[in-house]
Structures are given as structure tokens and as C-alpha cells.
Amino acid sequence: MKALLQRELIATLRTPGSVTNPLGFLLLSLLLFAVVDPSAKDAQNGYLSGIFWVLILLTNMLSLDAMFRRDYDSGALEQMLISAHMPFVAVLMRIFVHWLGSGLLMTLFVPLFGLLLGLDGEVVLPIMLVMVVGTPALSLLGSIGAALTVGFSRGGAILALLILPLFLPVLIFGSACISTAASGLSFTAPMTWLALVSSSSLLLAPWATWAALKISVEMQ
Known about the structure:
This protein is an all-alpha fold. It has helices spanning about 1-15, 15-35, 50-65, 70-75, 75-85, 85-110, 110-115, 120-150, 155-180, 190-220. It has one domain.
């Protein structure tokens, strides 16, 4: 597992654009939103949390297409599925590295996002907690769509159609957590449901991704 993790991290560092481009898209989107609608800079705005999570989902989608494509084009993906002693672990490490470069990185930039949106400092930590709990589900569920469309030359639109319905529970409970926290109320209930979504995704998504990758490789 350590060797697999090192390999995935090195491969990600060799292509920094796969991490910086989606993050730049998120920053520019939030900046444009703050400039176009300055009146939305209010922690009590109900739709603010929804806008924030929609941008998080779109940013995550931008990085999903490249999750397995590099290894698929080079033939390394087929070798991994055939020769790896535990292909499930290899798939799980790839998903974990994707989350490090997307969900965790976006969580670390939440204080900057809060400044752009004019959120109170007291809301920043709850938002970071919500993102740590909710963003793993985005990488886990998104990996299924990425695995199914890895063999398509232009699978971006199909990928979006496949995974957006899966992202709906994360969007609903994630925005509910942020909206409740911004109102100064306890967000334990929606946070519990969000944690359940992430936990269920961790149990089911890697196996579904592995099966989808085998289908994509066999159709090559």
C-alpha cells in the first residue's frame, strides 16, 4: 500500500495541472459570483450554501476525467488489473490520491473562499469540517463514472450525466450543514446523514469502480 501510494503521489506531482486547473476554476467562479452579486455576502443567505456546494461539485467533476485516463492510454491500467495482488487496494489508493488533490485541497482553501463570499469567521471551521466529511463521497462516487467512461475519447458529457444524480445526496446534506451552521444552529443531523453517505460510498464505490474498470478494459 505504501508503494502504491508513493507511485500515485509521484504521478500526480508530475501533472500539476490536474490539481491546479480545477482549483483555479473554483477560485475564479467564487470571485465572479462575489463580484456579480455583492448582496449575497451574507451568512444568512439561504442559497449561498447551495451555490458553494454546486461549485464544489463542478470543480470535482473537472478532475474526474483524468483519474484513470493516463494509465488507460499507456496500458498501465490493464497491467494493474491483471498483475496486482490486490487490485481493489490499487483502485482505493487512486481514489484517495484524487481526494487529496481535490477535496482536501479545497478544504484547506476554505478561509480564502470565506473571504470572497463575505462569510463570518465563526462559520469557516464548520464549513471545513463539513467538507472533510462530504468531499470523500465525491471522489468515491465520481470514480465509478470515471471508470465507466475512461475508454471514451470525449466522455466528459457522459461522465456528468452519470455522476450528477449520485452527487445529489452530498449536495443536499452538505448545503444543509453549511446553511444551518451559518444560522448559528446545530448541524448534527445533516452532518450525520452526510457522514452516512460517505461511509456507504467507501464500502461500495471502490468495488463498483473496480468492476467498471474491468468492463472498460475488456471493451478496449
